[in-house]
Amino acid sequence: xxxxxxxxxxxxxxxxxxxxxxxxxxxxxxxxxxxxxxxxxxxxxxxxxxxxxxxxxxxxxxxxxxxxxxxxxxxxxxxxxxxxxxxxxxxxxxxxxxxxxxxxxxxxxxxxxxxxxxxxxxxxxxxxxxxxxxxxxxxxxxxxxxxxxxxxxxxxxxxxxxxxxxxxxxxxxxxxxxxxxxxxxxxxxxxxxxxxxxxxxxxxxxxxxxxxxxxxxxxxxxxxxxxxxxxxxxxxxxxxxxxxxxxxxxxxxxxxxxxxxxxxxxxxxxxxxxxxxxxxxxxxxxxxxxxxxxxxxxxxxxxxxxxxxxxxxxxxxxxxxxxxxxxxxxxxxx
Length: 334
Known about the structure:
Blueprint: H1 3-12, H2 23-35, E1 46-52, H3 67-77, H4 82-89, E2 93-100, E3 111-113, H5 131-149, E4 155-161, H6 165-177, H7 193-209, H8 216-223, H9 226-240, E5 244-247, H10 250-262, E6 270-272, H11 279-288, H12 304-322
Parallel strand pairs: 1-2, 1-4, 2-3, 4-5, 5-6
Helix pairs in contact: 1-2, 2-12, 5-9, 6-8, 6-10, 8-10, 9-10, 10-11
């Protein structure tokens, strides 16, 4: 038997009915297959939160002012955000990347400086970023993961912070999947009905006034954001290092959509951690033909879904490695 057949047999012969552990069995199989072993391990788990501002935010596509991006990065660095709490609870390393916040930060041991600009350009009047800025984002994202790989990390999660970034994610989703923009746009940080309608109208105008991109890199050039582009590149680099990739919510999934457009095999290493309350995320997950671990009406971002799902990923590895088989436990199989 090859390694895939051995893994499935090992899972099936545990002291349980077939498929009784549901999604945990699929996760265990995925991890074992990625690591090409019957006894996989998770080492030095790390979550990276990419933060950047968006020029489009001044058009009122978010319920929050743009300065919240800067303020939340400071909150991350002061260990006061939800992602800090959940990472501490589950012994996950956390790094924060300034991919393009419209402010400057003092040096900090948990902050990675990779600023592509002081926020993307307003898509109403042109592309979100220049080709040089996109190239910088890809080089930066790759280098960040290359550096983390030296710490023996073999499972990595991706989160984000950026007021206005659900608009970029919706535009990326719409153009790459050829879906009507209305199916991809949600309330983001909590827009009311009037704000949601304004957001839809603005994004529809942007779709109509931009040429259709031919690939994910062209889409990122047009629609941004810096944090999504760096996340996309970081995911691709994580795949090159054969890391398990924990994908957070709607924004992170849009970055993964871009990454999978550039390298389809990356799906083999991806674990989708939660289904966001954002309207487009269900369709986005369906496009990958994957089930998320959690469905808890989360829409915070920051990588919180990754941190919350990580203990269940640990459980998948634990049952594969430690649970008795029918034979070893002298339990009768049917």
